[in-house]
């Protein structure tokens, strides 16, 4: 298996910018790209309007979002996979990087300024605890 780059996404524009950067890095390195999102448990429910019923879950929505982003990035790099994993974003990214023996984790710099910097951010936590290199994309 070749090198693997893990990128975290959450559906925001800043995360999409980080994912685009990760895809370009993967293409340049000849690495596989793993698009990952974290979700909070598997809460869900049923929405009923008249006789119509729709089921929803955080896991299903997270999987759809990562698959959509993977499809979007698929034109940039050839080997791409995605996963939605329950847990806190920083724990999920670090866990996926450890599990896959990733070469690099790519995250955006969202919430690394102001109060978010004092309280901590995903990028800050990942940078201090990752088992591999971390690339923090300037998205703001």
From TrEMBL:
Top-rank taxon: Bacteria
Q: Which InterPro entries match?
A: Rossmann-like_a/b/a_fold, Universal_stress_UspA, USP_A, UspA
The record places domain UspA at 3-138
Q: Which Gene3D superfamilies match?
A: HUPs
Q: Cite the CDD domains for this sequence.
A: USP-like (cd00293)
Protein family per UniProt: Belongs to the universal stress protein A family.
**Protein name, entry field:** Nucleotide-binding universal stress UspA family protein
Species of origin reads: Arthrobacter ginsengisoli
């Amino acid at each position: 298996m070749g090198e693997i780059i893990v990128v975290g996404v959450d559906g925001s524009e800043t995360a999409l910018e980080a994912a685009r950067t990760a895809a370009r890095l993967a293409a340049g390195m000849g690495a596989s790209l793993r698009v990952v999102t974290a979700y909070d448990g598997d809460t869900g429910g049923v929405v009923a309007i008249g006789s119509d019923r729709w089921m929803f879950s955080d896991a299903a929505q997270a999987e759809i979002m990562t698959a959509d982003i993977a499809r979007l990035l698929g034109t940039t790099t050839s080997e791409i996979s995605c996963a939605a994993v329950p847990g806190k974003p920083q724990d999920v990214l670090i866990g996926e990087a450890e599990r896959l023996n990733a070469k690099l984790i790519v995250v955006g710099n969202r919430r690394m300024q102001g109060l978010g910097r004092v309280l901590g951010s995903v990028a800050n936590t990942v940078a201090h605890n990752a088992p591999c290199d971390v690339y923090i994309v300037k998205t703001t």
